[in-house]
Amino acid sequence: MGALWIRALGPLQVIADGVQVPVSSRNLRIVLECLALRANSVVAADFLAEVLWDGHPPAHPGPQLQVYVANLRNLLEPNRRKGVASHRLASRPGGYLLAVEDDELDLLQFRAHLAAGERAVEAGELATGAVRLRQALELFVCPAFPDLADMELLGPDLEEAEEARLDTYQDLFDVELALGRHSNVVWELQRLVSQYPFRERLWASLVLALYRSDRQADALAACRTARKTFAAELGIDPGERLRELEALVLRQDASLGAPAVNEKRRVRQRLDNLPAALTPMVGRDAELGEVCSLYRSEGCRLVTVTGAGGAGKTRLAMAAAARLGERMPDGAGWVNLSPLTRVEQVPGAITAALGLEAPAGEDPLKIASRFLQARRLLLVLDNFEHLEDAWPVVLDLLTAAPELRILTTSRRRLGLRPEHEFELAPLELPPLDPPLPLRRLQEVPAMKLLLNRGRAVRPRFAVDAGNAAVLTRLCHRLDGLPLAIELAAAQLRQLSEHDLVADLEASLAALPAGFRDLPDRQRTLTATMEWSYQLLAAPERLLFVQLGVFANDPATAAIDAVRGPLPPGAPSTEDLLCALADHSLLRRYTDQAGSRRVALLQSIREFARDRLGMLPTESEVRRQHAEHYLALAESLGPELWGGGQVDAFRALHAEALDIRAALLWATGPAGSTDLALRLVGELWHYWELTGSVTEQQRIAVELVEATPDAAPQLRAPALSGAATLTWALGRYDQAAHLHRRALEAFEKSGNSQGIAWTILCLAVQAAQSGDFPTAERLTAEALSCPGVSLRVRIGALVVLSRQAYCAGDHLRALELCRASAELTRRLADRWLLGIVLTNLAESTEQAGDYGGAELLLIEAISASLQLGAEGNLAAFLDSLAGVYTSQNRYDPALRLLAAADSYRTDRGMSLDQAERRRVDAIIDKARAAAGPIRFGLAWAGGRRLTVRQAANEVLRGGRQPRLFGTVGGSARSSSPAVESAADSAPWT
What we know:
InterPro entries: BTAD, NB-ARC, OmpR/PhoB-type_DNA-bd, P-loop_NTPase, Sig_transdc_resp-reg_C-effctor, TPR-like_helical_dom_sf, WH-like_DNA-bd_sf. With about 1000 residues, the protein is mainly alpha-helical. The protein is built from 42 helices and 14 strands. Strand 5 (about 90) and strand 6 (about 95-100) form a beta hairpin.
């Protein structure tokens, strides 16, 4: 067939084989437009006759209609040979069919653009979707099908086309608003609401566009105009959406703000975990500009900042990441490699820094690569020098993620082909001869830093004619190394600049010989730290070295514990810390919980750690460190099960790095297996609450496998903890095996509470696998244990309620769920309460009480947020989305589902098969009801939320949750003993 183009969404136009064909006869136009309106479908000849002669066709309309069709065939196919059947306008039994492709008829092209736009928006590509929707609308040159406008028979078809046009406009405005282009659509919206004043979606979009364009008064006026229009013309009030918008505009609600998105990419949560700078960067403005400019070079994706230790590589990388991260759509991520000791740890450190969880058996590098694959961000790998053999990780990430940029810091370059090296020299030094004028001298970078840090200890410190030469010499003596200058400047508190130079020249001259294996610049830095160290009194030196045992910023109580028992008259920890702070070797601060803590620069911490390795009592220091954190775990662990749960969780979370260090030492060659077993036995529930258990599970399982002869009272809790962590990773068979071994150990130790708890765990696992007869038998066995705790009784109710629900006995399931929720509120255990309320919400929803189910799930979400543990939040959001979908509230449902899906995807987590089917069914139902545009916009909006942000959005829009109150309906305990049962940890 030859080339053809038919325009019908405006004045009729036909182009055949590149030539415009006039269609002068009105009757020909009517027939062609009627066939085009129903293109690629058979249009009955009788129907064409009714349309053509306006309901009064002649007695024999067939011959005349055939003439019109023949003329149209000649117009559409001017080069068709005689005797050859028409392919464009074909005869069919009882009628005719116009055969055209999408790019040959504007109506079909409109539908194709619309479908492509819907698919793009549904996939999260909002900018592409907006382009395709705009292309669809540009095909309309109203009025569409002008010769058919007065044909009553075609009224429904024409109304459908017009509705499609207006709906497409509305979809386009929704997408444009989601892209932050509110100011671009205000005029169009004002024009359309004046033409179509009774379309609420247009009014709502206009209000939002005006508000986001800082025209709040106009937005409020638009709300009131719409209300008056509906009342005056239709006698009704506007719909709920417009009424809600008016209230939000009046109180200038934050939810009306424009989203921050990048139009070229799917909207998502930005990464931003850069460490806070403790001091301003001085004298490195030029270097900062040079590093940032490297990434503007064509093809530059990897930059390594090299230089001596103490040159300020980390500080420069922090500043560069902050600046570059602002221009990266997905932000910047920071990975501190200095605590690592093995190359194999690098992928896990990157995964953890990205906020991801690598499930057992999965390669953390693949998890990180999958996360970074579609993102455009800067990843900083700080302190790479001692892990140089990890260079393949860098190449793998660059290969997997084409938009990724990496910045590394190291003593030397990585030696990779895509690498751009930036060698960071010491700070520029002032000339010794001839001396600079004072005004210029104080702006030289090395002098500027010295003055800046000197004023921190001597507020009136300045350069003048009397000390200019001395300070210049001091900068040279320190080789312009920022850390050396900072350490030396700290001595200006008690030394004059003249004495400081004299001391440095006397002591540093002999030190480099002891460090000949280091580069010259590093010798000066190490010597400077050594010099600062030697200036300390003996008790100060000892405490400084002991601080090297800490992985994070320790609290004063932890430092006291590491010092151990002190002889009479020994200086207090407070006095010694003040002295070390005076030497700028540490910084004191108070954390959010009110604890006084100590922070050390990483280079100083490493120096202290190296010195600790030379200390004869190193093993004792590390033991005292581990014993302190064990004591902390033993004091706070039981609190994780009750009313003190929030404070206990936060306190343990603040010490997470040192708890990990204590566990690693205890399970190491010089450690203590007894101490390690006690740590696992106390901390497994804390790890379970965090939702991050991969490393801890591996350590716990290896520990219990390596200690078969340990005392049962130590081994049983550790086995139970290892089993639960294994279960959390979805390794159910191994978890059941470990729980059975834990049961044997509890029986040997005579711990009836532990026996009951472990039997209940086995019952829960049996129920999860669908083996309800075994679950029921084990539940009864757990309840028969002497002195069974309230927690076990609640767990038994949960198992029985699940059994009843799955058996279809929904009334009994609801009653059991209510009983378990009532008892759980008495424990004030937010983690357990969330699980129990989710089960109760499912039964409540099944009973048709969607409002009650929503309130229960909001309470579960609130409890989880108060606790601060995100482990179950995604599941709670999925369940609430199911309730919203049952209430036809598809937009908020999709936002929650998208946030939960993004959380799991970014962490490489997966749902079990049953849960996957349930969540997919909710998504499919919401998608089908919302349509592709609404689905795409809601899903894109949800993907840029963290689960915590999504949960807070729920709480802002939902009813006030009721924590630890009473549950509606009757809640009966299964035994009077419940009232007096223990409510602490499972086996205490």
